[in-house]
Amino acid sequence: MTTKVGILVMSYGTPESLEDVEAYYTHIRRGNPPSPEQLKELVDRYEAIVGGVFPLRQNTDHQVEELQAALDEASRNQDVEFICYQGLKHAYPFIEDGVEQMARDGIKQGIGIVLAPHYSVMSVGSYIKRAQAKAEEAGVSMEFIESYHLHPKLIEALSDRVNAKLDLFIEAGAKRDDVRVLFSAHSLPERILAMGDPYVDQLMETSRAVAEKSGVTNWQFTWQSAGRTSEPWLGPDVLDTMHKLSEEEQVKYVLVAPVGFVSDHLEVLYDLDIEAQAVAGELDMRLQRIDSLNSDPLYMETLSDTIITLWKQQH
Ligand code: FEC
């Protein structure tokens, strides 16, 4: 008999329209509505990137479809069927909706995975906590994947992207070693450091592995997209790093590799492609960004391998 296993594929979520930005932002702020100024600032950022479309929604939908196809392929002729359900952190369908749908479909066992490779108690940990609570209530037995930041196919996909953009610099006349590669990820409040959180170490491990695989020695790590709250966030921020590189080391070529993200969305398309690109212009610096993974087959295989490995360990 074939066992049906629900795969809860979790992602950050994005509004469906500009009218939904307020509800989305209020959800991120745990029910506290933003001030009119804060709301306008966020709407302006979405308007700058999207022109009416929210790319993260489409990208997540596509990633879930492609992951389903990869799992179907990998489990062909086996006695297990993996069925993907989407669960978003801050938008419909919410994490809880995905778990509820599994239960309604008669699924008794599930595996949860987040479309973010690195674990922090404040990021992946909070997705898992919500999914676990709902699963207990709905009577679904769930296991979770916490991270997959060193999966060889993930490292290969990221290294290929680094090399592709380094080639563009070379075509434009730069020497490969003159390009400073900046690996980056979403900043988090500094208080995670006191909690022994693995987030920083995992990001450094991914960065080191990608640098090694692509033969890059001229690199460093920096943070981006810190939240607009009063507490201190992990730094240095990418914009400060760029200023420092220009002023203290006269660096002219920068390739930013946001290894903490897997999709085109606001934090990449605005924070890097618009905001950091504007700073690069002021500093007379040439800035490129690696392409996002989106539904790259190697990323899809990273996810499906990780899920199947966990399933096999349990059965
Ligand atoms: O394209 C889109 O519509 C969504 C882009 C988006 C992604 C994303 C990923 C992460 N976040 C993480 C942590 C935080 C913390 C806070 C926070 C706030 C925001 C706001 C927006 C936003 N985040 Fe986000 N994040 C995205 C978007 N994020 C918009 C609210 C305005 C602002 O501060 O800029 C602070 C919450 C609070 O007030 O307490 C913390 C982390 C990730 C990467 C892992 C993941 O994808 O889950 C960590 C994509």
TrEMBL record:
Catalytic activity: Fe-coproporphyrin III + 2 H(+) = coproporphyrin III + Fe(2+)
SUPFAM superfamilies in the record: Chelatase
Signal sequence interval, chain numbering: none
InterPro entries on file: Ferrochelatase (IPR001015), Ferrochelatase_AS (IPR019772), Ferrochelatase_C (IPR033644), Ferrochelatase_N (IPR033659)
Keyword annotations from UniProtKB, A to Z: Cytoplasm, Heme biosynthesis, Iron, Lyase, Metal-binding, Porphyrin biosynthesis
Pathway: Porphyrin-containing compound metabolism; protoheme biosynthesis
Protein EC: 4.99.1.9
Chain residues that bind Fe(2+): H186, E267
UniProt: Fe-coproporphyrin III binding residues: Y12, R29, R45, Y46, Y127
Family from the record: Belongs to the ferrochelatase family.
Record function comment: Involved in coproporphyrin-dependent heme b biosynthesis. Catalyzes the insertion of ferrous iron into coproporphyrin III to form Fe-coproporphyrin III.
PANTHER family found in the cross-reference section: FERROCHELATASE, FERROCHELATASE, MITOCHONDRIAL
NCBIfam families (UniProt xref): hemH
Protein name (database record): Coproporphyrin III ferrochelatase
This protein's encoding gene: hemH
